[in-house]
Amino acid sequence: xxxxxxxxxxxxxxxxxxxxxxxxxxxxxxxxxxxxxxxxxxxxxxxxxxxxxxxxxxxxxxxxxxxxxxxxxxxxxxxxxxxxxxxxxxxxxxxxxxxxxxxxxxxxxxxxxxxxxxxxxxxxxxxxxxxxxxxxxxxxxxxxxxxxxxxxxxxxxxxxxxxxxxxxxxxxxxxxxxxxxxxxxxxxxxxxxxxxxxxxxxxxxxxxxxxxxxxxxxxxxxxxxxxxxxxxxxxxxxxxxxxxxxxxxxxxxxxxxxxxxxxxxxxxxxxxxxxxxxxxxxxxxxxxxxxxxxxxxxxxxxxxxxxxxxxxxxxxxxxxxxxxxxxxxxxxxxxxxxxxxxxxxxxxxxxxxxxxxxxxxxxxxxxxxxxxxxxxxxxxxxxxxxxxxxxxxxxxxxxxxxxxxxxxxxxxxxxxxxxxxxxxxxxxxxxxxxxxxxxxxxxxxxxxxxxxxxxxxxxxxxxxxxxxxxxxxxxxxxxxxxxxxxxxxxxxxxxxxxxxxxxxxxxxxxxxxxxxxxxxxxxxxxxxxxx
Length: 531
Ligand SMILES: CC(=O)SCCNC(=O)CCNC(=O)[C@H](O)C(C)(C)COP(=O)(O)OP(=O)(O)OC[C@H]1O[C@@H](n2cnc3c(N)ncnc32)[C@H](O)[C@@H]1OP(=O)(O)O
Ligand SMILES: CC(=O)C(=O)O
Known about the structure:
Bound molecules: acetyl coenzyme *A, pyruvic acid
Protein name: Citramalate synthase
CATH topology of the largest domain: TIM Barrel
GO molecular function, one term: (R)-citramalate synthase activity
Shape: elongated
Low-confidence stretches: none
Radius of gyration: 30 Å
Pathway: Amino-acid biosynthesis; L-isoleucine biosynthesis; 2-oxobutanoate from pyruvate: step 1/3
EC number: 2.3.3.21
Helix content: 25-40%
Mean pLDDT: 95
Pfam family, one: HMGL-like
Distance between the termini: 59 Å
């Protein structure tokens, strides 16, 4: 490991350049605190002066952000062509941000200087020199991001290196080689980094993911000697995104063995990734390395049978090191071992090999009939309990019936549904009518009404999501339907599945499982007693 190594996070600047992400000042402050707790070296907060939110962020950061691990960095550009750094309003905005560190983006590809800046190669070098010199004289520590460096190096090697040299000689602490268009491949990185290393300044790398190689390219640059790596949490960024810092941190720490973060900080990696996705209002990528929900999820029976002996046999690292969990998925690809491991995770031992085989066969048959247990852990647990004689049914259904009509109450045509539910709970027969704006809603009301006298806690159960999938679309209205229902009691969440030839039948099965499961687990009991 180099003597000094920087993890430079640009989620708040380049990450916010991703389509669909818009961060408020409050969001930025929250993310900065999370990143600081994770233990990154630098947090690039945005471009002061570019928009009111970024300007306000830096103003508020001066009084509201107490960073213990990281340094805050203000990002901006070199001065305008033909002017001076001392009189450039954009540079003044960077100074006003009040940070010790400033990162300047500088052109390093000759074509970008002539075509995009519409300036000369010499003037661009003067812009770099003037801006870095001006800021360092003010006591700022300056990093320089050489935009399009790798493409520029291929087009005009000596000019790209001149930009690095100019920045270094003007006093830049680190010069960062950027793969701005993200098209590099790992085996193209080393030679370019080595050529720049000859200049004798600390080097960094900033990769975009357009070739799908941002992490690999960054690792190749690290191998070639860079001591500073820029990226974003979850790989947010322009187009296909930036290098995913969560993957890189785990790679360097767990594969290279570099102690970049304390173990307890590394164990926050999964939480950090999810928390920032929540704040950025982005769905979390389930297949994200190390931190994704599926990163350590095992579906194949053969994998499970090996994992039963030794978890390491089908895992490249231990999930708990990054704060993630090993999960066993139950499906038509499961074998006995999958079922035994999953049941054990749910607190149900199935030591008998034959019984485990019977449960597995039942799962496979039900999956063939349309059930899916991969997400529906609660229905799986009920099935295992039932087949292993560990289920006391909290109620016994006698029948249900649903009527839907369009009526014109108060002169306004609208649909309404009634569900008649008959069941026995704690020895009492209940016959109730539930009303709802649709048949499933009415059934839900009916089952709650029928169960409440015996189990008042069901009033606290809420159906939070409902998903329907038609399984054999070609059969049209005659098709088999699968319903998945997510239920919550405010503390726990559980998922159940139902299958039927119509959506109401499938919904009833998923609903009945949902209430059975909640009652079997004793969910909501304490809250109901305190009411
Ligand atoms: C590779 C990267 O991702 S770098 C980060 C890019 N991030 C962003 O662009 C997001 C924030 N940007 C903005 O809000 C705006 O673009 C601003 C405030 C920076 C500038 O806005 P405007 O003044 O309206 O200029 P506009 O965006 O049209 O053009 C950029 C100007 O900067 C100049 N410029 C571009 N790169 C550089 C550079 N490295 N150094 C100096 N000037 C530069 C361009 O030549 C152009 O100059 P011109 O106005 O004289 O034509
Ligand atoms: C600086 C930067 O964001 C880039 O070159 O991609």
